[in-house]
Specification:
Elements: E1 3-11, E2 14-22, E3 26-30, H1 37-45, E4 52-57, E5 60-64, E6 69-70, E7 78-81, H2 93-99, H3 113-119, H4 135-147, E8 153-157, H5 165-181, E9 186-189, H6 193-199, E10 202-207, E11 210-216, H7 217-221, H8 227-230, E12 236-246, E13 251-256, E14 259-264, E15 273-279, E16 283-286, E17 297-308, E18 313-320, E19 323-330, H9 331-337, E20 344-349, E21 359-361
Parallel strand pairs: 3-9, 3-10, 7-8, 8-9
Antiparallel strand pairs: 1-2, 1-4, 4-5, 5-6, 10-11, 12-13, 12-15, 13-14, 15-21, 16-20, 17-18, 17-20, 18-19
Helix pairs in contact: 2-4, 4-5
Bound molecules: adenosine-5'-triphosphate.
């Protein structure tokens, strides 16, 4: 286990009482505004001393309130990337990067300065001052600086929240590469499910200061009971696919376990493995194979769970030859279709509604 956290902390009117483990890979901390994400990550970083608890990183004790141990931030071997990059405005990019090495241990590291500059595409920026960088470039420098401290884990608190959609799309592939290049565990705070769906391996769902659920991302994102917590519009499963063809009409064929699906504008190469997020609201369910339908994506599926919501909606868990899918339909439709667990039916995915940002390189 990379990181193990079990802490309590009280603010006036808010109590954080959270325990979770972050294994290797990217662990996303997700929750509504005020759920306690930043408080939690600040406690891990050593920027906040919680009232009580224990935090370990690869067996190293960072905090043990019972034993009176609380390492200062610079001794924790954590790299922290904030939403606002916090670069030094008077220093060049190169000097900002070098600042990251201040507390870096001298022992050998898999990450050389050149590797980090290369991975994040920083070489053309080295002589510039932060005010001459775009938002995405600024965040790449901040990530580079954090990596140069040779951390044992990277903490990222809403690193893309200040970026517009285009910049966000530019930087996500860097984060995907970072994830695998250095084999560095990452604790990633975000309330954007599209980012988390692309990057995370493990999801920790925070609600009102406690961990509501935690586990592998695929399991949690396809759990119909979690739809209200994840947000009815954004909830959706992720599936792995292989790119098999780019057709001249702009559609790309992706092979998944249940067959082929066709999506527009996929950036990956033929043969690449990609992760696709299919939002529950973009999946329609039919009892019989639909005919004369404009959608080209029709998959045979089995109903795994039917979760009626408090309102007019229902979330349906589906199995597509081993891949979990989620559909959000009206409770009335679920009732009219007579959906029951074990029932075979068809899932219809509307190709054009799968956003570009929902398709990510899956490099692991
Ligand atoms: N220094 C503080 N003093 C008092 N209350 C605080 C302090 N810091 C945070 N809180 C409160 O603790 C709760 C959790 O805040 P926190 O910033 O951890 O949430 P969050 O999930 O990161 O939210 P967001 O997504 O909006 O950043 C909120 O109710 C907040 O008002």
């Amino acid at each position: 286990m990379s990181l193990s956290v079990n802490i309590t902390h009280h603010f006036d009117g808010f109590t954080l009482n959270a325990a979770f483990d972050a294994p290797a890979g990217v662990t996303a901390l997700f929750g509504r505004s005020g759920a306690g994400k930043t408080t939690l990550v600040n406690a891990v970083a050593g920027l906040l001393r919680p009232d009580a608890g224990r935090i370990t990183l690869k067996e190293r004790v960072l905090l043990d309130s019972a034993a009176g141990t609380c390492l200062p931030p610079h001794k924790r071997r954590l790299g922290y990337v904030f939403q606002d990059a916090r670069l030094f405005p008077h220093l060049s990019v190169a000097a900002n990067l070098d600042y990251g090495t201040r507390y870096a241990p001298s022992d050998a590291s898999a990450m050389s300065r050149d590797d980090i500059i290369d991975l994040l595409g920083l070489a053309p920026l080295l002589d510039r001052r932060p005010r001459h960088l775009s938002g995405g470039e600024t965040q790449r420098v901040a990530i580079g600086r954090a990596l140069l401290s040779r951390p044992e884990m990277l903490l990222m608190d809403e690193p893309l929240a200040a970026l517009d959609a285009t910049r966000k799309a530019d930087i996500l592939p860097y984060l995907e590469r970072l994830k695998t290049a250095f084999n560095l565990p990452i604790l990633y705070v975000s309330h954007a499910l599209d980012e988390i769906s692309r990057l995370a391996d493990t999801l920790v769902l925070l609600s009102d200061g406690t961990v509501h659920s935690a586990g592998p991302i695929r399991t949690l994102l396809s759990d119909p009971a979690l739809v209200p917590l994840l947000g009815v519009r954004e909830a959706g499963a992720v599936i792995d696919a292989i790119v098999t063809e780019h057709a001249s009409d702009g559609l790309t064929t992706l092979r998944i376990a249940a067959g082929d699906i066709y999506l527009p504008g996929v950036q990956a190469q033929v043969g690449d493995s990609v992760r696709v997020r299919i939002r529950a609201g973009d999946v329609i369910i039919a009892r019989d194979r639909p005919r004369g339908l404009s959608s080209v994506n029709i998959l045979p599926v089995t109903v795994m769970a039917v979760q009626m919501g408090d309102g007019p909606g229902a979330a349906i868990a589906l199995d597509a030859a081993g891949d979990a899918l989620l559909a959000r339909i009206t409770a009335r439709s679920a009732h009219d279709l007579g959906l029951r667990v074990g029932m075979p039916c068809f899932a219809v995915l509307k190709a054009t509604s799968v956003a570009q940002t929902s398709i990510g390189q899956h490099l692991t």
